[in-house]
Amino acid sequence: MQQTVRRWATGAVLGVSIVALSGCGTMFHPERKGQLSGQIDPVVAVANGVGLLFFIVPGVIAYAVDFSNGTIYLPSNNSASIDVLHLDGELNVASLEKLLSDKAGQPVSLESELVKIEEMTNLEEALAMVRMSGVLDEERLATM
């Protein structure tokens, strides 16, 4: 009897620790990765807080993972997004400028030395490049 209770308690603690260490928001809402700020999702915050009830370290790690991934925030309409545009025909600077000009509704020039054009192999790589570029750094720092 005592051994059954001990096994059950060990399994429960192990299960909660695994969930807490991985970050609840990251597991529940992986599509939210990369959000910079917003309103905190109370469900994710409470789920991470459960880790604090058992041990301090798993709860703190869960919060750190979710804040660093941005998965603790509720989705918002004003978050950055990436549009996927497909080029028909040959890939050159002129066709890319025309495509971007049509999308932006104003003239776009890619001849500036400040413009860097790279082909990404997947969406995750493109999102990482956007995050590293600091596009929304001023907005994010203003809310701190």
From TrEMBL:
Stretches that traverse the bilayer: 12-30, 42-65
Protein keywords: Membrane, Transmembrane, Transmembrane helix
Keyword Transmembrane set for record: yes
Protein name: Uncharacterized protein
Organism of this sequence: Vreelandella songnenensis
